[in-house]
From TrEMBL, chains A, B:
Keywords, comma-separated and alphabetical: Hydrolase
EC number(s) recorded for this UniProt protein: 3.6.1.52
Organism whose genome encodes this protein: Sphenostylis stenocarpa
PANTHER family membership: TYROSINE-PROTEIN PHOSPHATASE, TYROSINE-PROTEIN PHOSPHATASE DSP5
Domain Tyrosine-protein phosphatase stretches: 22-171
Protein name: diphosphoinositol-polyphosphate diphosphatase
């Protein structure tokens, strides 16, 4: 029998874990949260992170840098101001650059965070969902789940207007090269095992 | 370069995906949502599900059963009434039984759903988080993110009072048998590869 519970020692009371506020799993090996503090480090260790995408212009605190060094985690910083006018081309470029880092599985497992895990993180995740062909209403629902009453219409507009076509086309060309034109399903996956899932149960 | 985008055909506009409302990833190979309708089936196909945990007493609709048959997905139904008095022992037993199905990786990937993906699903996920040693405030934050204004104090009390000790002890005994007492880290993981993550980047 296989189980998913992780145990560090025999006494469960010894290892209470504190995820950062607004923590969630986005996709296999992609996580999101607010700014992690030292109280969250034991929890973050369980994620086995390879990198962090940090979306604020402020320098990363020394104690967080020390944690990253000790865990061999790479920091990708994209300096987006807290209340950026979303019509500026700089934001588009920063989100596009962050998106390229985000979808590269060589950087996984990866944690995305800004300050509150609502607006900047929500925009980046929203653009990822567009790239995954989610319908806009579902993208917005997810954004609002994390932003709550702080939801910003200008962020939703940014996500809607964000052009993923050039990135998609770039991905398609890579995928075509990888699988060839004759393949029925042109999927480039992190783990090959997903393609052929063993079936233990029948319906 | 490895990428996580999945493509069904060359035209991205052909494959707009509609996740069920309140859809989210809970853990590796564990998902949650509201009741899926046929418009969500193409999206659900991308999850490559092996099973569904359904937490309502109402019979599963024929069109959903047909989808499950076609995808070879096993249905586990736990008949919990919509506004159950959480003090009834029946609920405790149902959630415990569902939890046992949920943590068994032989059933993964698995989707948990009830009607709205708020209360019954939120209770089950909350109990899973306790088993994972999350602190209660983080468990409650996650519950509220999905329940929103429909958040119920009695659900939070149920989660708080839910006794995971017997299940934890059972898991520990399995883990001890599996890894032996001498092991420094007693983790029983879905994928062994997680234990030895290759490092491609250095900080």
């Amino acid at each position: 029998m296989g189980l998913i519970v992780e145990v560090e020692n025999g006494d469960p009371n010894n290892a209470v874990l504190v995820p950062p506020p607004n923590f969630a799993m986005v996709e296999d090996c992609i996580f999101r949260s607010s700014f992690p503090t030292p109280s969250n480090f034991p929890f973050l260790q369980t994620l086995n992170l390879r990198s962090i995408i940090y979306l604020c212009p402020e320098p990363y605190p020394e104690e967080n840098l020390e944690f990253l060094r000790s865990q061999n985690i790479r920091l990708f910083q994209f300096a987006i101001e807290g209340k950026t006018d979303v019509s500026t081309p700089i934001l588009k470029d920063s989100i596009m650059d962050a998106l390229k880092v985000l979808i590269d599985v060589r950087n996984h497992p990866v944690l995305i965070h800004c300050k509150r895990g609502k607006h900047r993180t929500g925009c980046l995740v929203g653009c990822l969902r567009k790239l995954q062909n989610w319908c806009l209403s579902s993208v917005f629902e997810e954004y609002k789940r994390f932003a709550g009453v702080k939801s910003r219409t200008m962020d939703l507009t940014f996500i809607e207007m964000f052009d993923i076509l050039s990135l998609s086309q770039c991905l398609y060309s890579i995928i075509y090269q990888y699988h060839g034109y004759g393949s029925k399903k042109r999927r480039l996956l992190n783990k090959d095992e997903n393609l052929q899932k063993p079936r233990l149960t029948s319906f």
